[in-house]
Amino acid sequence: MKIAIGGASGMIGKQLVAHLQTRGFHIYQLVRPGRSHTGFDKVSTIVWDPANGDLDKEHLEGLDAVIHLGGETITGTWTETKKKRILDSRVKSTTLLATTMAKLKRKPTVFACASAIGYYDQTDYNRPLDESAPQGGGFLAEVGAAWEAATQPAADAGIRVVNMRIGIVLDTQGGALKEMLTPFKMGVGGVVGSGKQMMSWITTEDVVRAITFCTSNPNLSGPVNLVAPDAATNKRFTKTLGKVLGRPTFIPVPGLAVSLLFGEMGRTLILSGAHVVPRKLEEAGFNFKTAGLEAGLKHALSKA
């Protein structure tokens, strides 16, 4: 198979490229002008410029699949400029790919595009949310909805589209776990806010396997939750991480402090969360290598 990947240089993308290469796939990395060096062995490049709508459709002719993982990081202070970059980086790039693929004579069979569990309601912690759950409120839900809507031209053209709603990825190289490790190792980790907010997570290994599964399984389309089946409250996540690290977890972090320090971003990403379940993945026969939280944290930390 020939697969093009947007966001191949990111935390998940790098490991996805390595995983697909071991399976004998030929990878084409979508790169922006001036960044033609891939950093990978035996990877071809396709130059594109999503901000300006530039992508030569001839380069996508005959590909078997397109996987898109790119987008501005959502961490940092959410100024209006930052929020516009978060939205535009996802919607413009996805729209460009979807509309270009729709015009091809030899279209890819599948377009697997990242989305996020921020699409769901982040306040009702007790209700497990599968792919049929409605859109929640707030900025991230709006981004998720617009991001997924941008794939529609590909679906309208007969391409199987999978909107991969990815949860918290456990990896020491980036994301939430990396940020949590320093205070925990110093012995000052603790429950954040009420501790009741849900953390729906997945290991990097399983998210890479799940992306591959979504791409190759013809029965999967539309939204698919890429999370492990063992979502945890912040309190349980904190206690489990402390146990795995052998560090105390008795110093709480008040919600007010998080709100004052990080504003809207902190209230959305740190003090809120959704109990998301991987119904469609499990029904399709996907087997998680690390389904339990303690095993997931041990696996992630073993790679540090």
TrEMBL record:
| Family annotation (Pfam families) | DUF1731 (PF08338), Epimerase (PF01370)
Give every DUF1731 domain span: 253-299
Coiled-coil residue windows: none
Q: The NAD-dependent epimerase/dehydratase domain covers which part of the protein?
A: 4-219
Family (UniProt): Belongs to the NAD(P)-dependent epimerase/dehydratase family. SDR39U1 subfamily.
According to UniProt, the name of this protein is TIGR01777 family oxidoreductase
What species does this protein belong to?
Acanthopleuribacter pedis
